[in-house]
């Protein structure tokens, strides 16, 4: 693989060990020496660097808003956007039948951060995170309106590394144009369930999530 | 607050700014200057330090097993155990009506790690994580991560050639589409029983097994 100098420039890090860079860009569909372990490491490094940055950038912001901002930065959408900025699409090594999806790209961003960490330590990795995610960081709005209930519940569980909620339709009544849905939302830790009703499945799910958040509080 | 020298010794970090330590041990129920923002930061730092340690300690372990090991270390149970080792129970500042629960203690461990990070940087915080979580790290078994509770209980008993657990439904409430089950799990050696609730028999059994594992520990 030719050395992707533009990528290293955008990361603000020139690799001492270029094999780490190659590994970070190798999807598991390509075979051994892939980026899965680096992705695991990079996920942790990214979370830490983002937390440090938000903690320092927004000194007065309460924990709940910080958590929401962090979640918005580490989600697949955001990381796939970073991958685009870094130009990863053309640099990935994937198996013959593997598409370079947004998920593949988002994972590769995490793996890259892990690779910089192995190559240069925390300060270098933090620098790479800020270089790669600067545009996203700069357009953050700390006062962005509260998330809908389903998102808030999901983010709250993710922040504690707990299993995500499950939704299932309990009942569906009425004719096509005036249906009423009842949905159950359940989580396993702590074991709780809550019901919600609405005129669409989506609304019923939101109500169930809201009811479950109430129980959590 | 008197300076908790024993705590600093167990963390392997003496604070330059003792106010950070005080803040880390102040629950939100106590008022302003509480540990919520430090907890947000510490959560990220902890995830990173644990990822780094697992990545280095288990060079051949695939990503899935690393992820499960990390989850087992950052869950509330594990952090509450660390809080016990650090002796946080008596050091917390909480509001008059606030119990020092396992959740309060687990959050304070994260806040402490965040405080060390602010006070001394990543290397100091990583050192504190390893000092505080050393016992948990040393007893990790990379080949036996995160089984579900019923499997873990069964395997634990089998390993000691003890009789297997029995599960029985204690009560079943509600209509067909929103039932709640209560299940009792019992073992004979040592003679213990535990209850679990859930929206299905299977979930209730898992909860009962989890509660019984807690009693065994």
Question: What do you see in this structure?
Answer:
The structure is a homodimer of 217-residue chains. The first copy, chain A, is mainly alpha-helical. Chain A has two domains: 5-138, Ribonuclease iii, N-terminal Endonuclease Domain, Chain A (Orthogonal Bundle), CATH 1.10.1520.10; 149-216, Double Stranded RNA Binding Domain (2-Layer Sandwich). In chain A, 57% of the residues lie in helices and 12% in strands. The first copy, chain A, has eight helices and three strands. In chain A, strands 1-2-3 form a three-stranded antiparallel beta sheet. The longest helix of chain A has 37 residues, at 102-138. Chain A is globular, with a radius of gyration of 20 Å. The N and C termini of chain A lie far apart (53 Å). The model of chain A has no long low-confidence stretch (mean pLDDT 90). At the A-B interface, α3, α4, α6, β2 and β3 of A face α3, α4, α6, β3 and α8 of B.
Classified by CATH, the class of the largest domain in chain A is: Mainly Alpha
* Fourth-tier CATH superfamily name of the largest domain in chain A: Ribonuclease III domain
Total of domains of chain A: 2
- The largest beta-sheet of chain A arranges its strands as 1-2-3
**Low-confidence blocks of residues of chain A:** none
What is the correct CATH architecture of the largest domain in chain A? Orthogonal Bundle
Number of strands of chain A: 3
- Name the overall outline of chain A: globular
Identify the notable features of this structure and list them briefly.
homodimer; 217 residues; mainly alpha; Ribonuclease iii, N-terminal Endonuclease Domain, Chain A; Double Stranded RNA Binding Domain; 2 domains; three-stranded antiparallel beta sheet; 8 helices; 12% strand
